[in-house]
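Quiz preparation item.
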């Protein structure tokens, strides 16, 4: 099942519940699409209503991105933070659309991101904490440019993070990810952080860990 009438293209797996289902929204990484993380859906609790979203920027020859990553001789590798902010706000809008369109519980919303999708998930949760509850942050990091000015005074009491990273990640250095638990702790935000001996990907033991964590939260 898919729907194109909302602000972002997406595919869904319906819940075993007919109404008030816990909602899980997936955000893929740079150069991928909505089918990538959706492969997890068959292994996740059947009561979850799962939406996997396609990022808005089409890449050539294929794939999609939440924001442009530029490569040049002067600045090296750098991200377009303005595009990232636009995607952050678009996701926030999409959450509102999804919770009014589908038979889900707007007070039980989980975001699951990988890489660039994780960076956006952090940005959405910390900017719009009233819209989400649980965040599964795989192989990403917190970009300070995507955070609100009042980050130190916002109410983050209902947020809960599961953060994980590969200890030999060759795309996003693990040192970047290790800053997340320090940041979350400083704001008294509930979180878990784990590392696994893999590169830029999700190890089987990582998946089983996030699945167990999620089952306890929904």
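Solution:
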């Amino acid at each position: 099942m898919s729907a194109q009438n909302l602000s972002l293209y997406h595919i869904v797996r319906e819940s075993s519940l007919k109404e008030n289902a816990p909602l899980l929204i997936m955000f893929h990484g740079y150069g991928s699409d909505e089918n990538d993380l959706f492969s997890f859906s068959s292994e996740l609790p059947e009561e979850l209503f799962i939406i996997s979203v396609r990022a808005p920027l089409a890449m050539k020859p294929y794939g999609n991105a939440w924001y442009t990553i530029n490569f040049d001789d002067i600045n090296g590798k750098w991200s377009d933070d303005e595009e990232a902010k636009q995607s952050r706000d678009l996701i926030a809008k999409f959450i509102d659309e999804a919770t009014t369109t589908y038979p889900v519980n707007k007070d039980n919303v989980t975001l699951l991101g990988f890489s660039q999708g994780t960076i956006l998930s952090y940005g959405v949760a910390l900017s719009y904490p009233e819209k989400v509850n649980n965040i599964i942050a795989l192989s990403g990091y917190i970009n300070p440019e995507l955070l609100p000015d009042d980050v130190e005074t916002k109410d983050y009491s209902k947020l809960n993070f599961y953060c994980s990273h590969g200890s030999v990640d060759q795309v996003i250095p693990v040192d970047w990810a290790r800053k997340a638990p320090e940041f979350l702790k400083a704001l008294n935000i509930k979180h878990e952080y784990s590392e696994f001996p893999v590169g830029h990907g999700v190890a089987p033991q990582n998946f089983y860990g996030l699945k167990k964590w999620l089952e306890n939260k929904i």
